[in-house]
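Re: duplicated header lines in exported structure tokens

Our pipeline writes sequence and tokens for each protein into one text file. With two proteins the header for the second block appears twice in some exports. Here is an export where it did not happen, for reference. First protein block:
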Amino acid sequence: MESSDRILASGIPSVKPANRFNMFALLVTFLLPVLLAALAFKFQWFTPASTNLGQLLTPSIQLDKASMPDSIQGKWLLIVPTKASCHEKCQQGLYISNQVHLALGKDMDRAANITLGSTIPDLDSIHFSTQIDEQFSSDQLYISDPLGNVILTYPIKETPEDNILTAKSILLDFKKLLKLSRIG
């Protein structure tokens, strides 16, 4: 007779309180994460993810491709701004750029080191108009894509130990860019 007690007058079986709790727990299990994710997105509880280690330039600086030597046309560029007297940070920047270029290994031919401003031996040199030179700081290193857009910047630090970390950051970003790039 117990089974007949659970059937209501309409012929629909009644639900035990334990079954209601299970149904509610199942509903909460699936809806709560979706609701929390929507709230986190709406109220920006988390910072947006970024995989690049350098500072993204927005808007990017456009290089004058007409003044570039043919040897670096269509290549990714690691730009070292220099002045007539290359101070210690400039020397550090040149060392970093050479080391990163060597560390690229098989992708070395897809990238080039350039100096901006004055000619430094052992590197290709590009001379731009003074209008563009003012947009570059001699305490920074820059990455440019094959289309001439300068997109990332990295600070040159005071100590060689800090610059090793900068070089690793540049190398990681460079390898990622070369891997994902269909140009250059």
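Second protein block, exported in the same file:
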Amino acid sequence: MAESKQEPIVTERLILRQIQPSDSEAVFAFTSLPSVMSYTSRKPHTEVHQVTTYLAERTSGPNIYNFSVCLKDSTNTVIGLLGSPSYPEIGYIFSPAYAGQGYATEALLAFTPALFAVMPVEQTLAEAHVDTENVASLKLLERCGWQRGEVEERAYTSPLLGLRDSVCYKIAREGYELEDMTKKEEEEAFVPDLR
């Protein structure tokens, strides 16, 4: 995997650190579960070497800012992945074994300002595309201050569920208002009728 100067993000109970090849076994434990992968465009992993490739894809290339989410325990247990595969989009996946304890919320609240700190300053928002039926993910984003936007019908194909709709959640960089950016996007997209 590519070398990076990505600094860890530390919270009260978590360490978000650079993804490492040694994370493959821990990540396999949850990406092999159909319940975890059903709202993604990937099949559940069936072998650890698939996870190694999956993780390598998340650490090489421009505008990538991805982390393994680890417990602050004696072994730094990997409980999820969180990051930006390409600015300004974010994504995450967590082990259900650690659900309901606030870890995903804690990680996303710490990650969001760190993402804005490394993104180009002209990128004033971040976005997450979530399956419209992935209730846990929708609630996570809302808890963390992300605002629900437009629904895209037939946005992606889940190998387990078929053709799926997604909803785009957005959050603005500190000092910006999401409503102002939405109006600006609409104005830039407006093409007057010159007939």
